[in-house]
Amino acid sequence: TVLDVGHAPGSLQAPLVAMGRYILISENDRLNSTRLRILDTQPKEERPTPVGEARIDGQTREAAVVRGKQLFVPAGDERIAAFTVSEGDPQKVLNAVAAFQSPKPQGGRMFLATGPDDQFWMASSSLRKFKLMTDRIAPDKESMSLGVSSQPVQTIGNSLFVGRRALFSRAVFFTSVDREKMTGQWQAVTGGRILECTGPSPPDGSIVC
Question: Is the pTM of this model over 0.70?
Fold first, then answer.
C-alpha cells in the first residue's frame, strides 16, 4: 500500500516510528518546529488513516523512542518532548506531558535511550539522565561530557554504550557507562591516526603503535 501524506520534499529526516497500531511521522514543515503526525494502521485491510497530530519546537532528525505508552521525541538544540500514547480515544492519541531544553544547547546529533521507572537518557554534547514526572522532565544532577555524539545509544543490562567524537579528532570514543551512577567503566578508541610506532623488535619483528 502506498499512501501520500502530502509532505514537502526533504521534510522527513527522522525515521518513522511504530507504536503498536500507530505510526509516528515527524515532519519538519517549518523552520523552527516539527509537526508530529499519527497514522492508524488498523484495520489491516484498509489504508492507514490520520488520527492525530501535535507540534513541537525544533526540527527532528533522529528517531523518537517508545517505552510502553511513553513517547520521547528528540529535536534540535537539545530539546526533548514527552507524550503518552493512548489507543482509547482516536481524537487524543498523542497527549503532551512535558518538554525540556538544555540551558546551553549545542548543535550536533542527539540520541535517546529509555529505562525503567520513567527514566531516560540523552546523548548529545553530554550524556544526561532524566526522569519523567507528572508534568515535567526532571534532569539528574550528574552528567558526562561527550563532545559530539556519533551513533545511537545501546543498552545492555545496567550499562549504556555511547559513541562520541572529540571536536579536535576524527577518532570515535566508544564508552561503557553505568547508567545509574553515570560513571565510565571502560573506553576504546577507533579511527584515530597512529601517533607513534616503535621499530621492529627482535626476534619476531613486532611493532608497537
Answer: yes
